Amino acid sequence: MFKNELSGPHAGVVALALMAASAIAPFAAAGHTNNIMITGYWPPTNWMVSRFSTNPELNPDGWIGGNWEGRGYNVFSYFPTFNPDDAPNWGKGTGDFEVDYQDTSADWQRIVNEVKPAAIITFSRGNPGSNWEVESRLKMRAVNSWFPDYLEPKRPSADMPIFADLAPNQIVPSTLPMQGIVDAVKASGAISNAYIDTGNGFGGAFLSEFIGLHGEWYNMQHSGVNDPYRNFAAGHIHVGIDTPLAAANMATETTLRVLTDYLDTVVPAPGTAGMVFLGLASIARRRRP
């Protein structure tokens, strides 16, 4: 089992930056990191985010997320791996964010405490076909209303932190730039069937919705202007089962470009709020509109 770590060619720099940020945090009245956290579950969503992993065992070609495309944001990915012989019924997997309620809840707390993301996108496999389904909202469920996973206990438990804040049937909206993502993915030619889902099925009452709610819950917790690690956007995207990997890769990068452009319009300019740089010791100044 390979838990994704801040490792690889930038490991020393990343570790030092995290330590420095931890020292700064108690004195910051308000601020944010420049980190974007993305997650995957079943293929192709784990494969399409793998180049943003800092774990060389998961990403032997090396992390590309540092100051990605010179945009001033570091992108970190986390995902499980699966036995190819299990396709297409992939099961639980191993590593970060296994398709398991207990593992996902525990990994979430650990990883967000390390990354302190300014934005989050959770991805998971969706409907048949090649499509890019941006979830407009997700729904919290009672403990026994979630579909069972693969390992006992097969449902979440009421002592998980998210259940202390979100009530059953509470609906939580996405804060991603949804229409911009849909328009850009279509225009890129990667996936023509990109759309915003506003249906009453919400996120599906399984691990896709569960991890998606964690992202939107994190945004609720950390969206305040005085938060020392403010979060500006979070949401979930379902990716079609039959989406070719090349198309999924292109759509992922297109989505990240839209997100970083959006962040440039809402993140306070340097000098108006404290910025805690996690991920790289030196980074180019973010582009401004």
Characterise this structure.
The protein has a single domain, classed as Aminopeptidase, CATH 3.40.630. The N and C termini lie far apart (43 Å). By secondary structure, the chain is of the alpha/beta class. The longest helix is centred in the C-terminal third of the chain and has 22 residues. Helices cover 30% and strands 16% of the residues. 47% of the residues are buried. The chain has a six-stranded mixed beta sheet with strand order 3-2-6-11-7-10, sandwiched between helices. It has a two-stranded parallel ribbon with strand order 1-12. The protein has a two-stranded antiparallel sheet with strand order 4-5. The radius of gyration is 18 Å and the shape is globular.
What distinguishing features does this structure have?
289 residues; alpha/beta; Aminopeptidase; two-stranded parallel ribbon; 7 helices; disordered C terminus
Helix content: 25-40%
SSE arrangement, N to C:
HEEHEEEHEEEHEHEHEHE
CATH architecture: 3-Layer(aba) Sandwich
Q: What is the typical, i.e. mean, pLDDT? A: 88
Please give the CATH class. Alpha Beta
Question: Nutshell version of this structure?
Answer:
This protein is an alpha/beta fold. The chain has helices spanning 11-24, 45-48, 101-115, 161-165, 178-188, 207-222, 245-266; strands at 31-32, 35-39, 74-78, 80-81, 94-95, 119-125, 132-135, 137-139, 171-173, 194-197, 233-239, 274-275.
SSE layout:
Elements: H1 11-24, E1 31-32, E2 35-39, H2 45-48, E3 74-78, E4 80-81, E5 94-95, H3 101-115, E6 119-125, E7 132-135, E8 137-139, H4 161-165, E9 171-173, H5 178-188, E10 194-197, H6 207-222, E11 233-239, H7 245-266, E12 274-275
Parallel strand pairs: 1-12, 2-3, 2-6, 6-11, 7-10
Antiparallel strand pairs: 4-5, 7-11, 8-9
